[in-house]
Amino acid sequence: MALDELKAALPDYAKDLKLNLGSVIGNSNLPEQQLWGTVLACALASRSPRVLAELEPEAREHLSEQAYTAAKSAAAIMAMNNVYYRTLHLLSDKEYSTMRAGLRMNVIGNPGVEKTDFELWSFAVSAINGCGMCLDSHEQVLRKAGVERETVQEAAKIAAVVAAVGATLEAEGALAAG
């Protein structure tokens, strides 16, 4: 199982990551599509080839073709949006926030899956990419749609653990190569 491979690859000092990886994925209360879409979108956002290589095949097994594509689309569109909207947030000149973005974001309006699933995946990727504006926006859409705080929190925990596993494995790879 890919999860066991990732846990085994983690160094001893990252024991908490091993435990958390098994917990946030193996003991999740999220429905299968929400869980594995979140895992796939976060694996992509982690930018870790090892994490993606281990988690993608399992995600593909648990997702329909539409959900698989939508999760990848969430990671792709948030990679763009998180940079753009984080920039607007960080600039002291708020005039930029009033300007038309002019960036195509059609997939947000028609993701091919339940809107709440796509929003949850976009939220999780935004957590990894550190965009407060996007986090607020997606969280508000989710809450208005009736999604419980615990579900939103679960996506944030998956994002945190997958990103940390990716960062740790990439750092260990760099140390071993150095």
TrEMBL record:
Leader sequence residues: none
Catalytic activity: N(6)-[(R)-dihydrolipoyl]-L-lysyl-[lipoyl-carrier protein] + a hydroperoxide = N(6)-[(R)-lipoyl]-L-lysyl-[lipoyl-carrier protein] + an alcohol + H2O
Disulfide bonds: 131-134
Carboxymuconolactone decarboxylase-like domain span: 96-176
Keywords: Antioxidant, Disulfide bond, Oxidoreductase, Peroxidase, Redox-active center
One Gene Ontology biological process: response to oxidative stress
Domain of life of the organism encoding this protein: Bacteria
EC number, as in UniProt: 1.11.1.28
Enzyme class, broadest EC rank: oxidoreductase
GO molecular function (one): peroxiredoxin activity
Catalytic site: 131 (proton donor), 134 (cysteine sulfenic acid (-soh) intermediate)
UniProt-listed Pfam families: CMD
Family label: Belongs to the AhpD family.
SUBUNIT field: Homotrimer.
Function (record text): Antioxidant protein with alkyl hydroperoxidase activity. Required for the reduction of the AhpC active site cysteine residues and for the regeneration of the AhpC enzyme activity.
The protein's name in its UniProt record: Alkyl hydroperoxide reductase AhpD
Species of the source: Peterkaempfera bronchialis
Protein encoded by which gene: ahpD
